[in-house]
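seq as requested:
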Amino acid sequence: MTVTIRPAKTADIPAITRIYAHAVEHGTASFELTPPDETEMARRMSKLLEGGFPYLAAEVDGRLAGYAYAALYRERPAYRKTVEDSVYVAPDMHRRGAGLVLLNALVDAAAARGFRQMIAVIGDSAQAASIGLHLSAGFHHAGNLENVGFKHGRWLDTVLMQRALGPGATSDP
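struct tokens:
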């Protein structure tokens, strides 16, 4: 299977919305309870792109297989060089490698933009696939927040993972 990574574009919004809706409705990767519509997903994409953050799409056989983006980890100025990653893969493409290709490309794109740390905020400590994906991309476990979300009738943890980008913290930004 060949995965092609490219910048995401507005024309991808319907597929991105479908992929994300499935994750919201059936999974715990997102703590949203109601999937946003295409208008909201387009607004979110536009805000990230206008802010200079990477937003990538993965194609397999000409079809959108997944997407990934980096966003500011926190709003306060001291966090300006730290981003949070988000990676979503179409349900029929899970465990086929698209997520790792996307995440590695996102790491490279964020580093090229001068970001120094990437944080993964993984919904649900039982998300073995997402945790494994991030370990494969060089992230390390940074902590757990226990029982911070309630979705699908149960309390969920958040797993925090982290990796340095470029020179990381070895020099001033």
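The two ends are 38 Å apart (CA to CA).
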